[in-house]
Write the structure tokens for this entry.
Amino acid sequence: MSHPWQKAASFAARSHRHQVRKDGQTPYFAHPCRVAITLLAVFRCTDGAVLTAALLHDTIEDTLADFDEIEAQFGRPIADLVGALTKNKGLREREREADYDRRLAAAGWRALIVKLADCYDNVSDAGDPQRRRSATAKARRALALAGPCSDRPEVARAAAALRGLLAGRTKKRRSRTGVDR
């Protein structure tokens, strides 16, 4: 018997098949895989719905897949998680970000821990200084949203790991340059 996350991995790989990361070389599907692996290996979260949503978290926003297709393939709870992790591109950027934060905060710990893993991967993968600053700002925003759910051990571990990554990045930049940027 296959697990929903196995089906989600195949679905996401097919959905993202022609996309690459901002480096122009890495297949995009590496990102949702790394988010799922971060959940397992770094955050120690084994929740099946979380892993499934992690693999699918960018499908509605960045591919031709839509909410109805995710719901038909994976059920309403997974579609709701993926929907909470999807920005509404029909809104202006400022409105879109506020709407996204509201929906993400209301979605509960499962969506928030996927967002923390997404931020962890984006901070880890940010190459140039501008992408690093943007990824760091988004990570801090996600940490603030996750605060009310920090009584969940999964979220507490995730937040601590992301904070540690951010602190390590800052310390690494200071040691290379001798000054804090």
Remarks:
- The mean pLDDT is 91.
- Residues 5 and 48 are 7 Å apart (CA to CA).
- The two ends are 51 Å apart (CA to CA).
